[in-house]
Specification:
Strand order of the largest sheet: 2-7-1-8-9
CATH architecture of the domain at 7-36 and 97-205: 3-Layer(aba) Sandwich
Bound molecules: guanosine-5'-monophosphate
Number of strands: 9
CATH superfamily of the domain at 7-36 and 97-205: P-loop containing nucleotide triphosphate hydrolases
Radius of gyration: 18 Å
CATH topology of the domain at 7-36 and 97-205: Rossmann fold
Oligomer: single chain
Low-confidence stretches: none
């Protein structure tokens, strides 16, 4: 792939506030596109096909995987999730910046394929607060909460593979930090050289 748009992967255990941060970032940054993943899980109330996810059958997911249309894929909490390769390639080739909300397995796969992709880890401020946030959702039984806490441990054990880490204690502070990382990734020389190749060449031609 030839890149001019940047890729930002946001990874966090459930309860860290990842989706709220990403949604707030998208709201005031119109040049940032959200990668809508394919998933075999069923839609939750209020979710719309094509907005939160492309909800597909296991057969369709397998077909896309076998056709090579998934840049990465993973089994998360008994459901399959994957990122559309063709969509993502089209965006970054057009110079658009893309944000991906994925798990550590997906981020690890993408990092291997595309080392320039930026991996941001969102950390909850404490174990106690993470537990409170999971319990206060009021939609899960104790077994599910324990399963999510174990999954959180697993996710956090990969933190050192990420490029940036934000502790989501105060929402506004965390959002500002995410905006700053987005800006920094846009300004990486490799991305800027694709955007401003004519400008750079004009100086070289003038030697
Ligand atoms: P949920 O079903 O609660 O929306 O998401 C469950 C988990 O799957 C979250 O950690 C989310 O980041 C992750 N996820 C969502 N889309 C993708 C994807 O395309 N690839 C991977 N690897 N994980 C994903």
């Amino acid at each position: 792939m030839a890149y001019s748009g940047s890729m930002l992967m946001v990874v966090a255990p459930s309860g860290a506030g990842k989706s709220s941060l990403v949604n707030a970032l998208l709201k005031d940054d119109s040049s940032l596109m959200l990668s809508v993943s394919f998933t075999t899980r069923s839609p939750r109330p209020g979710e719309e096909n094509g907005r939160e996810y492309h909800f597909v059958s296991q057969e369709e997911f397998n077909r896309r995987k076998n056709d090579g249309d998934l840049l990465e894929w993973a089994l998360v909490h008994s459901n399959y999730y994957g990122t559309s390769k063709s969509w993502l390639e089209a965006q970054v080739k057009e110079g658009r910046d893309v944000i991906l909300e994925i798990d550590w397995q997906g981020a690890q796969q993408i990092k291997r394929l595309i080392p320039e992709a930026i991996w941001v880890f969102i950390l909850p401020p404490s174990l106690g607060i993470l537990e409170d946030r999971l319990r206060n959702r009021g939609q899960d039984d104790e077994e599910t909460i324990q399963r999510r806490l174990n999954a959180a441990n697993q996710e956090i054990s990969h933190i050192s593979e990420s490029d940036y880490c934000i502790v989501n204690d105060d929402f506004d502070t965390a959002l500002t930090q995410l905006r700053q990382i987005t800006m920094a990734s846009r300004l990486k020389t490799q991305n800027q050289l694709s955007r401003y190749s004519t400008l750079v060449h004009s100086f070289q031609a003038n030697k």
